[in-house]
Amino acid sequence: MARPSLSRFLPWLSTVPAAILAWPFSAWLCAGFGVLFVLGWVDLKQHKQAVRRNYPLTGRLRYGLEYIRPEIRQYFLEDDEEKLPFSRNQRAMVYARSKVQNDKRGFGSIKDMYSADTEWLTHSLQPVQPDPAAFRIRVGGSQCTQPYDLSLLNISGMSFGALSPNAIQALNRGAALGQFAHDTGEGSISVHHRAHAGDLIWQIASGYFGCRTPDGHFNPELFALQAQSPQVKMIEVKLSQGAKPGHGGVLPKAKVSPEISEARGVPMGQDCVSPARHSAFATPIELLNFVTQLRQLSGGKPVGIKLCVGHPAEWFSLVKAMRQTDQTPDFVVVDGAEGGTGAAPIEFADHVGMPLRDGLRLVHNSLVGAGLRERIKIGASGKVISAFDMARCLALGADWCNSARGFMFALGCIQSRSCHTDHCPTGVATQDPVRQRAIVVTDKAERVYYFHANTMHALADLLGAAGLNSPSDISPQHLMVRNTQGQARTLASTIDTLLPGQLLQEPLDQSALPSPFAEFWHASDALRWGLTPA
Hints:
single chain, alpha/beta, eight-stranded parallel sheet, three-stranded antiparallel sheet, 11% strand, globular
């Protein structure tokens, strides 16, 4: 149910006859009682809500309070460190940095430094001052003729259709100002992505939006036409996403506007379907052939894949296919199950997919063990919002980070968690023309720019305090974590690490491999997803 604003009632109020407005108080009182009587009678006779039927009028309080419960909890009851999904302190940090306000905190930390899973960076007695402007990573292997120097923090995939036109424009304008990349999400490239010429990572998902045939299959000619645009810097094949891995989606035909129809290449008057799986490939080797095809069609631009890791054996199958064919993606973006800006079934959001840190470490380890890590860059996405979040991901094996909800906060998102209802109160995640007016593109673009710039400066300060000149120098040895017994240990001592080429040894010592390599690596198959049939 939408929450109407007062402005919507002003035209109606102007039509109320002056005679009615001049009623005496007693008349207004009688009218009020009359309205209450009618509402009570409706409650008593309706059949859908038991509370209202048994408790006319007063039962409505229950639904009203339930309706505003998220706001009551967020503004009055929620602890500053309670992450549901982001804490007040996290949101306040983004707001301050995006508005160039004071993001410092006085009177010490409010965290319990002795609780389990507490983490901290090991600082150095010889700190340095790295330059955040140099924090870029070149993506694109020997097969690329147009490699891209990518910022270490970029906008993660959020489609036009999920976000409003003004939000997309503000994000892209901010990316252009800060010289970082804007992932289109699977909804393809719209006129709003083009409006400010910010660098784009074009995401290709199972619907092949923007490069599809009328029946929904991949269209090489349409792909080449868009991919060779100078604004498109990289291509990302999305296999799965953190919000709902292994699950397709449907944009109802009522929400398919002319702009969405043009961007996605879908007809008006029909549901826009994102299948749960790709039709352009069915095996690991076919996926690598598809990646190679996209690289050629794009004119030699970096092409990679994005996935939320599911069954480890399926990822191992892909790594084996890379070794067997000598074809590799230029990058892999690991999305965590804790990520996701879109709507998802509760079971998928809470119980499907591997969390970011586990998935990131698995992907990094397998590429190291297979001797492929130097050829493939790794991005990390999933509740990355602060410089410390970035430092942790870099220490676990990432080369750069993507953030979705962090940049949504920079746009003004208040975490109302109504993204899927089209009733976003701040105009970020809605197609309602009235609500999206709240996003003033020039103002919000500056906030996007400053959030990125100030977070990168914060990362430089962190690395400098640790005595590191480059983000590539950070390792699990530079982070400490407190275990459940209250003991402080280096992060390196709590995670498994493979040696370069360890998975290629013959004979392979299964006993020397950590889980899940010991269970699934040997039995995975480059010719099919998952385990070799018994």
